[in-house]
Amino acid sequence: MRIVAAAIVCAVARGLLGNKTPAGRVVTLVSGILMAITVITPLSNITFSGISNFWDDLSEDASKYAQEGAYIAEQREKDIIKSQTEAYILDKANRMGLQIAVEVELDGHNRNIPCGVVISGNVSPYSQIQLESYIEQTLGIAKENQEWK
Amino acid sequence: MRKFIVLLLMGFFLIQPVSATEFTAPAAPESAQKFMPSEQETFADGLWYIIKSAVSALQPGLADASGICLSLIAIVLLVSILNSFSESSAGVLRLVAAIVIGLLLLEPANSLISLGTNAVIELSEYGKLMIPVMTAAVAAQGGATTSAALYTGTIFFITLLTAFITRFIIPALYIYLCLCVANCALEQDMLKQVRDFVKWLMTWSLKWVLYIFTGYISITGVISGTVDASALKAAKIGISGAVPVVGSILSDAAETILVSAGVMKNAAGVYGIFAVLAICVVPFVQIGAHYLLLKLTSAVSGVFGHKPSAELIQDFSTGMGFALAMTGTACMLLLISLVCYMKMMG
């Protein structure tokens, strides 16, 4: 608003005195200086100190949201790997005629690779050995990491 | 039969437990809800629905605007007639014409500028809710670095643009309109120069905000995209080195996550695009209609021969052009960002 007010005041003064009289020339010069000051003063008040903090805050938020997304994906991936591995074991057990329940453990530090399994159910020692070997060979879960209940 | 039932149960057991609840787009603001397509077969149908709804919402405002334009034409005609009868009172006539035209146009201009400002603020608020969802979805697809960089840039520029529009462009627009009226009334070079400077500053600043944002998005997309692609490749190599059956399970799981996160991301993105369009379509159509009507009025008024009045109407149409540009810039910024998110990681 200051710029508009200054411009109108200067325009009226110049309109009244004209450009050709000595007073008019002085008014033109003063108007120019006044307009320059009015335009430049607000520019000198602009500060940029908050921008770097704002950028840092945004970067922090960004990594928080990205981590949330990656975490959700990892949890879903874990669920899928766990359920598929369990289904794989149950499928074999079913073909062997065994009634068992399976709970697979994943190695969170190593790409969620199945690292252990808890098997519960009444199974003959022969079938147990057969299934243990099968799990070790196909899924890479060592016999000592297979718990039978 | 027993085998079939067992196989069926096994099949159910193998269904991937991926839910779509995590990456759903936030609901569009209440004012935009009625312009959101409820059911659409294609993207084009959705767009067509939004445009149709906005055009039907425009009709009552258009009648008022046409009335004002007819009044303006009548005023300019009257001023031209009076001016041709007594050339000695040309200055007074110019002053009166400027005041009357200014009074007639400032009120609708004010309400349209407010409409544009509200749209920009709503877009900014919606963007701040929508962008985190897209960031998380892209990160779930394995694009954590890219999505984080895009989030930072988008939110930074949206905040910057909103603050810039509300604190600088809007006051500058009012200053511009006041200077136009004053210039028409007093016809001084200085006022014309200041007016042209304000006009140049607004055009230049809006244009450069969009240029810098587009440049940032392009560069970030290329650099961060390479980092994410390398990380994904390394993960795939690691999976292929695992025990065959386990490797296949890991690979399937990773693929399922990538595909499902991609589907959810795109669904959220399409909803987001519709929401952004629904927010800005009414201000855009209304301001656009006024802009065109004022341009037409200015052209018709120019025929009557009173140049300052026709120029003032032309200046007001330019002012509406700025209101249109600021709404369009905010809308474009969000749309570009959403499309970039949707294009990321496939």
What does this structure look like?
Chain A is an alpha+beta fold. Chain A folds into 2 domains: 2-44; 74-148, ANL, C-terminal domain (GMP Synthetase, Chain A, domain 3, 2-Layer Sandwich), CATH 3.30.300. Chain A has 4 helices and 3 strands. Chain A has a 3-stranded mixed sheet, covered by helices on one side. In chain A, helix 1 (2-17) packs antiparallel against helix 2 (22-44). The longest helix of chain A is centred in the middle third of the chain and has 47 residues, at 49-95. Chain A is rod-shaped and about 120 Å long. The mean pLDDT of chain A is 83. With 346 residues, chain B is mainly α. Chain B has one domain (44-343). Helix content of chain B is 87%, strand content 0%. Chain B is built from 8 helices and no strands. Chain B has helices spanning 2-13, 30-33, 43-85, 90-140, 144-186, 189-240, 244-303, 307-343. The longest helix of chain B has 60 residues, at 244-303. The radius of gyration of chain B is 28 Å and the shape is elongated. Chains A and B meet through helix 1 and helix 3 of A and helix 1, helix 4, helix 5, helix 6 and helix 7 of B.
Task: List strands and helices in order, with pairings.
The complex is a heterodimer of chains A (149) and B (346).
Chain A: H1 2-17, H2 22-44, H3 49-95, E1 101-107, E2 113-120, H4 125-139, E3 146-148
Parallel strand pairs in A: 2-3
Antiparallel strand pairs in A: 1-2
Helix pairs in contact in A: 1-2
Chain B: H1 2-13, H2 30-33, H3 43-85, H4 90-140, H5 144-186, H6 189-240, H7 244-303, H8 307-343
Helix pairs in contact in B: 3-4, 3-7, 4-5, 4-7, 4-8, 5-6, 5-8, 6-8, 7-8
